[in-house]
Design goal:
Blueprint lengths: L3 E6 L2 E10 L5 H11 L6 E12 L1 H16 L5 E3 L3 H13 L2
Parallel strand pairs: 2-3, 3-4
Antiparallel strand pairs: 1-2
Helix pairs in contact: 1-2, 2-3
Length: 98
Amino acid sequence: MKKIKFDIEKDNLILSINGDILLYDDNENKQKLYNAAQNDKITKIVIDATQLQQWDSSLVAIIFELAKIALKRNIKPEKINFPVGLDRLINLALSVDR
């Protein structure tokens, strides 16, 4: 099972985060995710962290980039079972991003 997997269902981009995300470096998968998020047909982004276990700054960077894309498209990502610490870091990063 992929650690970071996404599917497109109608106009929804659904990102599932599974297991430990430590030093995640699948750049090809990340680029596919970002490209999918930029698709004009996508009107909703869902981030499901139900299966997430341990995580590090590599996950923060992925979610931060996805959130920036969503903000530019006026989409507020829906977060399911999102760790509080991860959510705070993303919000902090977005508040100081220029």
